[in-house]
């Protein structure tokens, strides 16, 4: 086990820079905090680059940490961990990881199985993470446009509660081309938006290979992507609220897919 005493240690400084998406993409590294996330990360066969632990955490979570190779463990005093941590109530464990094999870039629908949720320009880390967590629970695949919140941001990883480590997540640079390729396979595509061709969720069966699009929190779905979809879909709701949060809308649609399969 390595001991790091200085806040200016090169590895500590390196982790600090990974708060920036630019540096994460350059290094192909990201970090996350907490015991549960580390447990889930290891459960699905992932191998960390390094794990930083305070002296207190080293004693408290000795069982979990004993399963790690000695050369990845870095013990640090509290003042060094404070520089590393972005949490308000840290548990004293921070994992540094290579980019995941489970996060894949795709250009068409041929490698994305089952029912699919496509997020276009969803910028909130919590929304993206919650969608990934819900999709894992309900068995949907998720595709993210390139301008969505970064799946490797610590807030996104935390919101997934480990789902990022268990299932494939797909990244797509051209959502319109992706939807067109999807339609080319004979699968149906729906945009969660009001349009002349919108249908009410719950009044038609959701196929096992259908695709639904959720758009940006403020602007919704782009006109180009809306036009590319076969039809729109509306979630039944009262006039007491104008709209639903993106992750809640996604959850309702995904649950309907489980409840009312074609």
Task: Provide an overview of this structure.
There is one protein chain. The chain is an alpha/beta fold. It has 2 domains: 2-98, 60s Ribosomal Protein L30, Chain: A, CATH 3.30.1330; 103-259, Alpha/beta knot (3-Layer(aba) Sandwich), CATH 3.40.1280. The chain is 37% helix and 19% strand. The chain has 12 helices and 13 strands. The protein has an 8-stranded parallel sheet with strand order 6-9-8-7-12-10-13-11, sandwiched between helices. The chain has a 5-stranded mixed sheet with strand order 1-4-3-5-2. Helix 7 runs parallel beside helix 8 and helix 7 (125-138) packs parallel to helix 12 (246-259).
Topology of helices and strands:
Elements: E1 2-3, H1 10-17, H2 21-27, E2 29-33, H3 35-43, E3 50-54, H4 55-60, H5 62-65, E4 73-76, H6 78-84, E5 93-98, E6 103-105, E7 116-119, H7 125-138, E8 141-145, H8 154-160, H9 163-166, E9 169-172, H10 175-184, E10 189-191, E11 199-200, E12 211-214, H11 223-228, E13 231-234, H12 246-259
Parallel strand pairs: 1-4, 3-4, 6-9, 7-8, 7-12, 8-9, 10-12, 10-13, 11-13
Antiparallel strand pairs: 2-5, 3-5
Helix pairs in contact: 7-8, 7-12
């Amino acid at each position: 086990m390595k001991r790091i005493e200085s806040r200016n240690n090169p590895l500590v400084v390196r982790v600090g820079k990974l708060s920036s998406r630019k540096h994460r993409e350059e290094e192909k590294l990201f970090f996350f905090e907490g015991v549960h996330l580390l447990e889930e990360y290891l459960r699905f066969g992932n191998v960390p680059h390094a794990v930083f632990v305070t002296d207190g955490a080293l004693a408290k979570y000795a069982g979990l940490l004993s399963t790690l190779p000695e050369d990845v463990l870095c013990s640090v005093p509290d003042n060094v961990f404070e520089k590393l941590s972005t949490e308000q109530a840290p548990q004293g464990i921070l994992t540094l990881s290579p980019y995941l094999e489970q996060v894949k870039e795709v250009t068409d629908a041929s490698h994305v199985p089952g029912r699919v949720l496509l997020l276009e320009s969803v910028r909130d880390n919590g929304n993206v993470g919650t969608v990934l967590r819900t999709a894992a629970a309900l068995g949907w695949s998720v595709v993210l446009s390139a301008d969505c919140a970064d799946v490797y941001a610590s807030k996104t990883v935390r919101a997934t509660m480990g789902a990022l480590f268990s299932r494939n997540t797909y990244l797509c640079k051209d959502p319109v081309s992706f939807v067109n390729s999807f339609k080319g396979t004979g699968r149906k595509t729906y945009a969660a938006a009001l349009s002349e061709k919108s249908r009410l969720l719950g009044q038609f069966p959701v196929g096992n290979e259908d695709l639904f699009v959720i758009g940006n929190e403020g602007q919704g779905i782009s006109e180009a992507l809306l036009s590319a979809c076969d039809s729109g879909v509306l979630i039944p709701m009262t006039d007491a609220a104008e709209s639903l949060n993106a992750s809640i809308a996604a959850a309702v649609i995904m649950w309907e897919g489980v409840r009312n399969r074609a």
